[in-house]
Amino acid sequence: MASLKDIAKRAELSINTVSRALRGSGYVSEDARGKVMRIAAELGYRPNRAARSLRFSKNYEIAVISFIGENRSSGDQLMMEKFVGIKRRLSASGYEMHLHFLDIDNACEPANLKLLEDISGQNPAGIIIIGDGELYESIYRLMEAKQTPAVLISYDVIPEMDCVYIDRLQGVQDAVHYLAEKGRRKIAFAGFSGICCNRIRGYRKAIKELKLQEIIFRERSYLGSDLERIFDLAVAMSKNIAGTKIRPDAVIAYSDYLAAGLVAGFRECGVKVPEEIAVIGFDNRELAAFTSPGLTTIAQPNFKAGELAAEMLLNKIIKSSEQANAVGVTMNLKIRSST
Q1: Same domain for 172 and 285?
Q2: Does a structural domain hold residue 51?
Q3: Phi-psi category of 57—alpha, beta or left, where left has phi over 0 and alpha has psi -120 to 50?
Q4: Is residue 336, in this structure, part of any structural domain at all?
Q5: Tell me: the pLDDT tens digits for 50-82?
């Protein structure tokens, strides 16, 4: 097994410099840090966390809490991208990620409360909570009260809390402007009531800036991960859109799943995509590349969000700050044939 000495010899650096680079603390130039990380990966270096914990009287384990439920799956592609981003950044600094899942549908059940007690009792170096709302924020406050540094990966800025959020408002706003630049003047938004606030805000902000007419199609119930029902709902919605008095010439959908169903429904109605109606999805899931035509979508930078959350937490562990930080991650359009 490779040691710090092996890495130092290959990198032609001191052991102390290598140690600082791997810990992510103390001054190390970016060139030296990059060289150390590359050589550590090539040599398959794995820090002995037990030995480090004894030597420095410090825990090197980070708890990551996510939620599962009837309409939520932590095995989802987007969630996994966050996990990978967190894992890679923590591993580069010698920390280990421990995943924990709570049942969102039974948040106050004894099993969930017991799990939180167990996590707290293990005295992790820090905790990352994925999601926001009263439950997530209460866990954040609980951990901070126990002097365990915590960070949220949230859906928006959370006042007085350290968080990383994907800027969905900016993503949809940019998509509306892109469609307008392509000559589309009747741009609609298709989604669900009550769960896409930032996306609707981004849509409305851009529509107002461009002095266009607001056209919104919304279903009352959110179907979560029930993909078959989402597809059927989207097909039905597409027929409503195609037959409406003021037919839009572009639609931004709440998700790629909804967008894919709209494209299929428009095909059934004889409406050509993108010639008659352009369609943009949201998320950049794998299926977006396999629809016909390929789906333009607003890509969520989940890996980057995970990395930044881990970075923020490591900084809190090294040096606590009185000031709460909120870091927004920019979304980007992935252009395909549907626009």
Answers
A1: yes
A2: no
A3: left
A4: no
A5: 445 444 445 789 999 988 766 555 558 899 999
| Same-domain pairing of 158 and 141 | yes
From CA 221, how far away is CA 188, in angstroms rounded? 19
**103 and 11 inside one domain:** no
Q: What length does the chain have?
A: 339
Strands 250-253 and 96-103: unpaired
Q: Are residues 64 and 213 in the same domain?
A: no
Instruction: Note every long-range contact of 101-109, with CB atoms under 8 Å and residues 24 or more positions apart, other chains counting.
Output: 101/65, 101/66, 101/67, 101/68, 101/74, 102/65, 102/66, 102/67, 102/68, 103/67, 103/68, 103/69, 104/67, 104/68, 104/69, 104/72, 104/135, 105/69, 105/70, 107/135
pLDDT tens readout for residues 141-163: 888 888 899 999 998 999 899 99
Q: In the chain, which stretches have pLDDT less than 50? A: 50-51, 53-57
Q: Which two tokens stand for residue 285?
A: 């899931």
Burial class (CB in 10 A: 0-12, 13-18, 19+), 46: exposed
Q: How much is the pTM?
A: 0.80
Let me know whether 80 and 42 are in one domain.
no
Sheet holding 150-154, edge to edge: 96-103, 61-68, 126-130, 150-154, 163-166, 326-329
pLDDT score, position 56: 45
Q: Which domain holds residue 95?
A: 56-166+302-329
Specify whether 288 is located in the same domain as 178: yes
